[in-house]
Design brief:
The chain has about 400 residues and is an alpha/beta fold. About 35% of the residues lie in helices and about 15% in strands. The structure holds pyridoxal-5'-phosphate. This is Aminotransferase.
Length: about 400
């Protein structure tokens, strides 16, 4: 009998009960806008910022409307202007080049390695082309951050980190998002904390923090923050920084705070799922697992493997056969964007030159989410199905 997986790759866990209660309390009092506070009240949004700053060890934190908003806000705050070039990953999702394009700036794509991290040799070659790198820790894979920061320091490149997939992860013990000048996170439903939509931005830089807060739409109410620089930091800026409205509200913040306090437990559960997938696919001929460096403390909320140098139709057959058995694999090979998945050539507003080494990796790259509604048995079943189908259609070598 052929086994079939019946679970859903897009079903997240419910919001924890204390998050629901906190959200209901906000709805009962009606003060959803972050600056709508009663006497002496700080509000859920300011509290969330305080919590997240403490969690990441950052001096300043700002909560915003989405992860993509946080990225664009960071770019504006560091001074990226129209027609500037911004280095970024060729392997990432559309909101990253989209944030760059939203400022009228132009992405310069840097390749990906077989370990699914930014190609640091390619970065070293291209570093002179721009003043800013928007580094995407795509699918939770963290590159050698020591070498990356050395390359960028040497070339005078400012680093902004896209941590949409690394909230809670670390490199040599340092939280992801804390190597660069600014770290940006998403709290959209499919990330590590779920408020539907939402984003967070952290930095230790007083001026960047003040600019970001003004950009997000603080008006002259920036003193109602708890993880912000002192009011004096805003004096020189408040006449000059435009309001590009994108605040978070108290309802979403209320839902998020109890989730953040559970992030390390959830990361442990993700690690179990990830390890079960890895064990199940170990040693399958023709299938390459992604090496994870020892210095990387990752959150296994998704899983990738490679069918390197396989003919396209054969990869397509694996995808179709797995889908027929309930296993949804996302493939980065096809030129045509599908669902959330697209590749650098598909972003036609951002011209690029083909990168053969990157194209080779993307052509064989398969990706899946591991929602916490899965258990280890689910992962064993999913990996059995993938292993069987990969063995079944493997091309002659
Ligand atoms: C989701 C995502 C974003 C943007 O987050 P939103 O909150 O959806 O705007 C940025 N980068 C990557 C890699 C993402 O997956």
């Amino acid at each position: 009998m052929t086994e079939r997986f019946e679970g859903s790759f897009t079903q997240q866990e419910p919001i924890p009960e204390d998050g629901i209660e906190a959200a209901v309390a906000v709805m009962r009092h009606g003060r959803l806008h972050r600056y709508n506070l009663s006497e002496g009240e700080l509000g859920e949004t300011a509290l969330l910022e305080q919590d997240f700053a403490a969690m990441t060890g950052a001096r300043y934190c700002l909560a915003v409307a989405s992860g993509g908003y946080a990225l664009a806000c960071a770019l504006r705050a560091v001074g990226v202007a129209p027609d500037d070039r911004v280095l970024t990953n060729a392997f990432t999702l559309a909101p990253v080049p989209g944030a760059i394009a939203s400022l009228g700036a132009e992405p310069v794509f840097v390749g990906v390695t077989e370990d699914l991290v930014i190609d640091l040799d390619d970065l070293a070659e291209k570093a002179a082309a721009a003043d800013v790198l928007m580094l995407s820790h795509m699918r939770g894979h963290i590159c050698d951050m020591d070498r990356l920061m050395a390359i960028c320091r040497e070339a005078g490149v400012t680093v902004i980190e896209d941590c949409a997939h690394t909230m809670g992860a670390r490199w040599r013990g340092v939280p992801s998002g804390r190597h660069g000048l600014v770290g940006c996170y998403s709290t959209q439903t499919y990330k590590h904390a779920n408020s539907g939509e939402g984003g967070l931005l952290v930095t230790d830089d007083e001026e960047i923090a003040a600019r970001s807060i003004l950009l997000s739409g603080s008006y002259m109410l920036y003193e109602r923050h708890a993880a912000a620089p002192p009011a004096a930091a805003f004096d020189r800026l408040r006449w000059h920084v435009p309001n590009v409205s994108g605040r978070m509200d108290n309802l979403r913040a209320a839902i998020l705070r109890p989730q953040l306090s559970r992030l390390s437990d959830r990361s442990e559960r993700w690690a179990e799922l990830y390890r079960a997938m890895e064990a199940g696919l170990w040693g399958v001929p023709g299938l390459t697992l992604v090496q994870r460096p020892e210095a990387e403390d990752f959150v296994g909320s998704s899983f990738q493997f490679l069918l390197l140098d396989w003919p396209e139709p054969t990869v397509a057959e694996v995808v179709a056969r797995c889908a027929a058995r309930g296993v949804e694999l996302k493939w980065f090979g096809p030129e045509e964007p599908a669902g959330f998945t697209s590749r650098y050539g598909a972003w036609r507003y951002a011209p690029s030159v083909p990168m053969p080494r990157t194209d080779r990796v993307l052509a064989g790259l398969l990706d899946m989410r591991l929602p916490l509604t899965f258990d280890v048995e689910d992962c064993r079943l999913i990996s059995r199905i993938i292993a069987e189908e990969v063995r079944g259609v493997r091309p002659a070598v």
